[in-house]
TonB-like protein
Amino acid sequence: MKKLFLLLAITVSTTIFANNSRPAEVVKSEIRTEIIKLLGKANFQFNQELTAEVEFMINSKGEVIVLTVNTENSDVETFVKNKLNYRSITNKFIVKGKVYKMPLKLVRA
């Protein structure tokens, strides 16, 4: 009986401490890929490479909420907000309510 109890205790403790989550870098990379797909091509003309840092979070419904877009170009800010706000992210490992920062570079095609 003692051996059975000990085996059960070891099994339960192993199950509790097992880590089924994906590495944070993999999740961030997958989120970045989804964000890039949502953005698509820029719907405005520009002659030089444009950069921005996008700060966003995911609400309880799995939708992107753009908090800030740090850029010198107002067209980039408008483009990012219009394309991303309230669009759904399908990654099930994303932490809802966490603020994410993502650098963004727009290059002329």
